[in-house]
From TrEMBL:
This is Zinc metallopeptidase. It holds the Pfam family Zn_peptidase_2. InterPro entries: Zn_peptidase_2. It comes from Paenibacillus lentus. The lineage of its organism: Bacteria, Bacillati, Bacillota, Bacilli, Bacillales. Keywords: Membrane, Transmembrane, Transmembrane helix. The chain crosses the membrane at residues 6-24, 132-159, 200-222.
Length: 228
């Protein structure tokens, strides 16, 4: 596979990323209009799921924005966007329980989540440095420097790949617990799945883009070294 082919694949992956973002927003908006049959808000569902797993001390906080929901492992708090926190809808319950899935992973020391947390400080630093090393290396013909930049970038790609099973596992936990705890009905399970699956696409697209970008950098580096 040459650099031109990878560049074309990269463009397709970027297109997939835009489509995934459009899909997740559209799916969330669609099922935000579908009321939860049990009348639970995102906060209600999250609180019940946390308590069922003994996480009584994990608070739930509302945050501004849309799809800004996340679990903070440092402060051990679930933060839900206002449309999720306050509303009673399929989207709200699905997203809220997904974030609680991360809190449960944290409690159980889910291996991939532990690895992701350990990688984060290193990747946070190397991902900021790598573009400058790669650019400087190619501009000045310092291929060892460019190679170091590519190595640093590969850590960011690995981080993206590690994120995938973390997100999939959180969604699987959410779907299982929602049914087992009666937070959603059997008829709503498929709708919940559509919300969670659309969100998962964004992580898949991001990982694919990073992986193809890494391949492109490696090929450019190898071609440059061969020419010299």
């Amino acid at each position: 596979m040459n650099s031109s082919t990878i560049f074309i694949l990269l463009l397709l992956a970027i297109g997939l990323s835009f489509w995934a973002q459009f899909k997740v927003k559209g799916t969330f908006k669609r099922y935000a209009k579908v009321p939860s049959s049990f009348g639970l808000t995102g906060h209600d569902a999250a609180r019940r799921m946390l308590d069922a797993h003994g996480l009584y001390d994990v608070p739930i906080e509302p945050v501004r924005g849309t799809l800004s929901d996340h679990y903070d492992p440092i402060k051990r708090v679930v933060r839900l966007s206002e449309p999720v926190y306050f509303e009673s809808s399929i989207s709200a319950v699905a997203v809220a329980c997904h974030e609680v899935g991360h809190a449960i992973q944290h409690k159980e020391s889910y291996p991939m989540l532990v690895l992701r947390h350990k990688m984060f400080p290193i990747v946070n630093l190397t991902s900021q440095i790598s573009p400058f090393l790669i650019l400087a290396g190619f501009l000045f013909g310092l291929f060892n420097l460019a190679g170091l930049g590519v190595a640093f970038f590969s850590l960011a790609v690995l981080f993206q790949l590690v994120t995938l099973p973390v997100e999939f596992d959180a969604s699987n936990r959410a779907r299982r617990e929602m049914l087992n705890m009666g937070l959603v009905s059997q008829n709503e399970e498929q709708q919940v799945g559509k919300v969670l699956n659309s969100a998962a696409l964004t992580y898949v697209a991001a990982a694919l883009i990073s992986l193809l970008e890494l391949f492109r950098f490696v090929l450019i580096l190898l071609e440059s070294r061969n020419q010299n």
